[in-house]
Design goal:
Layout (H helix, E strand, L loop, with lengths): L1 E8 L2 H14 L3 E8 L3 E7 L2 H15 L3 E10 L3 H6 L9 E7 L2 H14 L3 E7 L7 E7 L1 H15 L3 E7 L4 H7 L9
Antiparallel strand pairs: 1-3, 1-4, 2-3, 5-7, 5-8, 6-7
Amino acid sequence: MSILGLMEFDGITPGMIATDAMVKRAPVTVLETGPIDPGKYLTVLTGDLACVEEAVAAGDESGGAHVVRGVVLANLHDGVIPALKGEAPDPEPGAVGIVETSDTVAAVHAADAACKAAPVALITLHLARHIGGKGYLVMVGVLADVEASEQAAREAAARSLVDSTVIPQPDEAFFARLLRPAPFRRL
């Protein structure tokens, strides 16, 4: 199981200062840090639970009133971080499930729930950048598994759910394009 710390700040400068404090306080690995829409700053990090908790506490202290949200997510499915990093293995073609959320934390919760509900391949977990601070995930698998995972993701996203769907038989060219996005990396 994986651990993530996510911190969102209402400004770029306070986000940079807080991220510096986070990595100085505890030995964590920063998966991504940078400006997000609209003019906010997001830091995503991983490590062992105690270190991630300590780093998020440091970000909260340093960021103060500029912290929009800080959270530690423990016991995540092992497919979440590779999808977030854009390193998920290419799956066999199958049904596609797509879930869109209004915030980053909900997207991670939804991805975790989807992976735990049924044996699907999480191929994309995109957080915030170039999509107005929202998040989305894309999963692939056997139709019944994708339907079960999409339902679990919807429930996990709760009030942060924007939309979701299952495409039972995606077009071959469209499916190939789904395997090439750049999740949460600089374009």
